[in-house]
Amino acid sequence: MKKSLCIGLVLWVSAGGYAQQLNYQTISIFMYSFTKFVQWPEEANTGNFEMVVLGNSSIITELKSMAEKKKAGTRIIEVTKISSLAEFKKANVLYVSNEWVAKHAEVAAKIGDQPTLIVTEQATGAMKGDINFYINKEGKLAFEINSPSVTKHRLKVSADLVRFASTN
Q: Which of 90, 99, 104, 143 is a plausible cystine mate for 55, CB 3.0–4.6 Å?
């Protein structure tokens, strides 16, 4: 099953990833796939699987649509949008919109070592989450994995997912 998911990721990167701007439908499919390739510690595996979007992003519509049809294993996927870090309680996945990427230090301080997968778009330099989407030189959607950040959040990423990650 993991092999077919990996093949699916490759197809989405190569076929659906061409764009001059980020394709939020494709990113939401990737984020759903991450639920199968990232292992959260036991304390983060109860209740609904929570995906939180920080700031304004068109991805919220795509994630909510996906959550209506899919589950993270046996868990219901709950998608919420927050406008500020003061609203953040906990999440399995925190999607950081472009307007918040420049405030990465604040986001990182708020999350600390919580088992939260931080996903960003177009992050550069030190402003990186655990997984960062970007458009590569060929104009394709790609993602990179920030291993030190993933480890800090006590998450384990499968070797299959790491093989599909690129560098920016």
A: 99
pLDDT digit string, tens, across residues 102-140:
898 899 999 999 999 999 987 666 557 889 888 888 888
User: How many Å apart are CA 68 and CA 41, to the nearest integer?
Assistant: 25
Domains identified in the chain, total number: 1
Residues in the chain, overall count: 168
Residues pairing with 119 in the sheet: 95, 131
**DSSP class per residue in 46-96:** SSSEEEEEES--THHHHHHHHHHH-EETTEEEEEEEESSGGG----SEEEE
Contact between 119 and 133 (Cβ < 8 Å) = yes
CATH assignment at residue 102: 3.40.50.2300
Collapsing DSSP states into helix, strand and coil, what is residue 166? coil
pTM: predicted TM-score of the whole model, two decimal places: 0.85
